[in-house]
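The methods section describes the discrete structure representation at length, but only in general terms. The central task, working out the structure tokens from the amino acid sequence alone, is never made concrete. Nothing conveys this as quickly as seeing an actual entry. For illustration, here is how one protein appears when written out as sequence plus structure tokens:
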Amino acid sequence: MACHMTAGATPLMNAHDTPGDALVDHARLAHELEALHPHCFGWAMACCERQRDVAEDVLHDVYVKVLEGSARFDGRSTLKTWLFGVIRRTASSHGRRERLRAVLGMREVSRTDRPPAASPADEAERGDRVARTRHALTRLSARQRQVLELVFYHDLTIEEAAAIMNVSVGSARVHYHRAKARMATLLFGDRP
């Protein structure tokens, strides 16, 4: 079974391989990871509450898992969808470890939110829109935030988002529609 890849990419598996015994071409895998890195980093940032250093650690752990083979792509979805699922699960696991360390006093958890740099009027307006949007996103449930992030910022379908989030397609659709409606209310109120 051939895997689904980005347009023009070479499959990571041979056509006669089954998902369980696929032989992965590591050079092609590394090439695909490099091509997907900007999207992966953006998703890692979303999964790590926009904390750059945490997202970098999570993404590093993901790449190690993939390249060492402890996380194996089996070709049942696109590489991007599968990889986003690995990132989500790794970030979740990382977050649980960090919260436990904080509770045990082993490490202080800190967040740094940097204000936008001074800029011309257009840049200030853009910064204000971004801040309002981010604030509105924080008022959504975690699932609603995730599905919007995947669909809008990473150009995935609702079906792919559902696979990454490990929920049914119907559930992902409900979260998606509720998130859009809630965002409209939060950002625009009752304006016609």
In short: The domain at 17-114 is CATH 1.10.1740 (Rna Polymerase Sigma Factor; Chain: A). The helical segments are 26-47, 52-68, 79-103, 121-138, 142-153, 158-165, 169-188. The chain is about 65% helix and 0% strand. Confidence is low (pLDDT under 50) at residues 1-22, 105-116.
